[in-house]
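Hi! If you just cloned this repository, the fastest way to understand the data is to look at a raw example. We've pasted two of them here, unedited. The first protein comes first, obviously.
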Amino acid sequence: MNLAERGMGLGLRTLTRLAGSQLIDRVGLRQPAQRALYRGAKTSTRAAATVGRTFGAVGRRGAPTRLAPGEARGLFDLTPTDEQQMLRDAVRDFARDRVRPAAQGADAERAAPLEVLATSVELGFTMLGVPEELGGAVSERSAVTTVLMSEALAHGDMGIAVACLAPAAVGTALGLWGDADQQA
């Protein structure tokens, strides 16, 4: 099983676990959960199509591509959307299942495990700040999404979390401030 298939399996396990939860029925959230699962499945399918790509040469030169700002939801609202909650849960599962077991070995080796880093690339962590037009995984920028992902990943191990997300910082910088040649 390749890394992309493992990443999709992780996403499907998370969706299945959420869909089968008895708590959703007890608090009367079955319908909103179904809508969130549909949107999550749609988003994850789109992300899976772009997950294995890296920065490729962009054929056009001209104006740089920028991510749209996130939708304004009030003066100061940090409440996660359904998509953000699902993403956080999936990343937390990855941190619990893959990052935390590798943490002690990473400390002993003084290096992040290459398999965990490769899986994070396959899952699209490095493409968070890259516009979809350039092969990225998001259509709008959101500090809340980035913080939720970072926090969830850090539940496994902070050092490995930083190693997994460091390439995303470069992608975000190029997405925000890079000219068309740099983005290409």
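Ok, and the second one:
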Amino acid sequence: MTSEQLLLACAALGITTGAGLLLIATAVFGRPGTTDPDTDAPPSSSPSSLTTRLAVWRQPGGGRRLAAAIAAALAVGGLTGWPVGGILAAVLAWWLPQLVGPDHAHTRELARIEAIATWTESLRDTLSGAAGLEQAVLATARRAPAAIRDEVTRLATRIERGTRLPDALTAFARDLEDPTGDLVVAALVMAAERSARQLTDLLGLLSATAREQASLRLRVAAGRARVRTAVRVIVTVTMAMAAGLAYLNRDYLTPYDSMLGQLMLLVVGGVFAGSFAWLRRMSAIESAPRVLSGLDVLTMRRAGVQP
């Protein structure tokens, strides 16, 4: 191994070691700015975007994606002797399920919207039986839809522990992180603080709005299907071309063996990564903006803590 290759290998090891330490720290200490779901302590700060992105690997399937990224980095780096190639392979392996796989995020968000609509209807029907708002929330928590059952259960737990209903609802909206849920929570907070009239009628309108939004997202997803197909074709052809060149005509890629070649490979890989990210963004369905914002600051002020 030449000195240039040794320097590149050390740089790659430093980058991967730093990323591994960040992932370990995220797993051990958790995301800053979050609260214990069973307590009412206000958050000390909002989670940073970097921490939020690093916490993705802790979600279902994140461990498999991380293992696949490490395996791809070791395989490509070992076969080609390119540290940059190993890094690019790891990045591609990490994002490949989102590029060519089904849109699980859209499916999950759609299921949550439907679940919010169902829970809102259940809450409306319970309130129609002359039950109080807190009693209605506790009653519906036992049969809440699976997509939001954990959030509704935490809401009921806060109420049972004596948390003021507006504060518990504010934490519930923060747990949901959904624009449709914000609309429902806003109506419930107004009812809890100002005794809003005709709450059952309002909840019925909100549930109907939620189902209309779910139907609209389905139509939008059908329109974006062609773009997602194009993304899959482009990514597959690009990967096949790179693998074919490396296997069939290795001499053509010899210039990348030098340090300058590795830097150029990093530039080329960055251009492709940016293009893939742009295509992915074109095919993705953007969520509606949140109705309720600054919930952390509101909770802190109610608790008497200066944000």
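That's it. A detail worth noticing about the second one: Residues 27-55, 296-307 have pLDDT under 50 and may be disordered.
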